[in-house]
């Protein structure tokens, strides 16, 4: 299945094949097509139906990064600064709302033992220049009266927000086509064609699709791609189970997070509750055990919400890496660009990823920001693994 149409103008920019039709692949495709590149996006299933669809849509640079995670915070902060314009332009291009909001996030705890962690996170963010303010337990409940009286202090991150991730997927899908890109759904990519050491296309179910530049943006699927002379792209599945409750009225004004659960209120009256974190699990089945943990988390944080009607349950698999950071930029194969491994921040990091990859392809400039996210940071581990595998067995 294809969408979009080619313009008849002469293109001087490269033909780009993008592997992966989630928010990362679609956003890169949209920006490149806007710039004048010939763009083909290949998605093995339906666009945006994987981790992008399963997400909660939080834009929480001031809640995700932990002490010591400077690179994580910097990428999130810069992307967050792009979100307002990105959302406005996308809604205009697609002709539909993505429900971008900026009410901020309340981060708190229910146990005094967890309070030190919240305070440390607050102090880390404060030293990095984040707009955060400390709250007493009473002040937390003043902002969100429905929360339990057991809530301890916490902080408010005023720059955080949210977007309806499922509407974001549909808008990006539309925008790619409107900009002249073509989306190929149901097209599994098996590998990247490498000729004379450079990427020259993708090998799909339908055959070879030539391209001048290839972008790998297929999350967990990145590890399965056959790419000659490139180290294995190290990906780790992290399953997350979620559910949605029907509020019916505005019980919450902000996203609220603890170490155990987060609550994301939609304007429609839907309350998204997440999420479990099951490292190494790659199935997308919601379980009684996982959903019970979420329900218990809601009951502890906001008892009055525990009895709300259940609308939906689901699970998704996040594309993680060993250090929790994405893999971005050029690699040892010329004309092959990586934009994968966004773990739990794919929605937040969407605008900055699209901007960095587009700049790299269109202008040839590689931002200094990309240095922290290069695949090369794993090369030492890969070399050690290859050496070990090539050693003769001691028991042979």
What does this structure look like?
The protein is α/β, with parallel strands linked by helices and 396 residues long. The chain has 2 domains: 12-101 and 160-234 and 323-382, FAD/NAD(P)-binding domain, CATH 3.50.50; 102-159 and 236-320, D-Amino Acid Oxidase, subunit A, domain 2 (D-Amino Acid Oxidase, Chain A, domain 2). The chain is built from 10 helices and 22 strands. The strands form 4 sheets. Strands 5, 6, 7, 15, 16, 17, 18, 19 and 20 form a 9-stranded mixed beta sheet that branches. Strands 1-9-3-2-13-22-21 form a 7-stranded mixed beta sheet, with helices on one face. Strand 11 (198-204) and strand 12 (207-210) form a beta hairpin. Helix 1 (23-35) packs parallel to helix 7, helix 4 crosses helix 7 (165-178) and helix 4 packs across helix 9. Mean pLDDT is 92; it is low at 5-11 and 382-396.
What is the topological layout?
Blueprint: E1 2-3, E2 15-19, H1 23-35, E3 38-43, H2 51-54, E4 58-59, H3 61-64, H4 70-94, E5 105-108, H5 112-127, E6 132-135, H6 137-143, E7 154-157, E8 161-162, H7 165-178, E9 182-185, E10 189-195, E11 198-204, E12 207-210, E13 213-216, E14 226-227, E15 236-246, E16 255-257, E17 262-265, E18 270-274, E19 278-279, H8 288-301, E20 310-320, E21 327-330, E22 336-340, H9 350-362, H10 379-390
Helix pairs in contact: 1-7, 1-9, 4-7, 4-9
């Amino acid at each position: 299945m294809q969408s979009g149409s080619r313009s008849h103008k002469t293109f001087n920019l490269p033909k780009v094949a993008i592997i992966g039709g989630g928010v990362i692949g679609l956003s890169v495709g949209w920006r490149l097509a806007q710039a004048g590149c010939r763009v083909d996006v290949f998605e093995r299933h339906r666009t945006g139906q994987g981790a992008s669809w399963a997400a909660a849509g939080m834009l929480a640079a001031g809640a995700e990064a932990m002490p010591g995670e400077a690179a994580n915070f910097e990428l999130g902060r810069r992307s967050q600064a792009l979100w307002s314009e990105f959302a406005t332009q996308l809604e205009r291009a697609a002709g539909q709302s993505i429900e971008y909001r900026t009410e901020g996030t309340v981060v708190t705890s229910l146990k005094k033992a967890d309070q030190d962690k919240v305070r440390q996170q607050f102090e880390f963010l404060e030293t990095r220049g984040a707009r955060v303010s400390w709250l007493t337990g009473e002040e937390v409940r003043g902002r969100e009266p429905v929360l339990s009286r057991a809530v301890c202090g916490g902080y408010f991150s005023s720059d955080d927000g949210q977007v309806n991730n499922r509407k974001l997927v549909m808008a990006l899908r539309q925008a790619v086509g409107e900009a002249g890109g073509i989306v190929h759904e149901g097209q599994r990519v098996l590998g990247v064609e490498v000729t004379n050491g450079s990427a020259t296309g993708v090998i799909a179910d339908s055959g070879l699709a030539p391209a001048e530049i290839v972008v790998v943006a297929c999350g967990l699927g990145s590890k399965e791609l056959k790419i000659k002379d490139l180290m294995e792209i190290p990906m780790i599945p992290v399953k997350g189970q979620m559910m949605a409750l029907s509020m019916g009225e505005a019980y919450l004004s902000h996203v609220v997070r603890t170490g155990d659960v987060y609550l994301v209120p939609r304007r429609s009256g839907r309350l998204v509750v997440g999420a479990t974190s099951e490292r190494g699990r790659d199935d997308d089945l919601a379980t009684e055990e996982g959903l019970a943990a979420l329900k218990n988390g809601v009951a502890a944080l906001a008892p009055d919400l525990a009895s709300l009607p259940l609308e939906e349950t689901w699970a998704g698999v996040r594309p993680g890496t060993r250090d929790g950071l994405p893999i971005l930029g050029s690699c040892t194969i010329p004309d092959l660009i990586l934009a994968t491994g966004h773990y739990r921040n794919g929605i937040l990091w969407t605008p900055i990823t699209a901007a960095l990859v587009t700049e790299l392809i269109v202008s040839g400039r590689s931002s200094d920001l990309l240095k922290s996210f290069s695949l090369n940071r794993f090369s030492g581990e890969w070399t050690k693994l290859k050496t070990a595998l090539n050693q003769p067995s001691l028991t042979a």
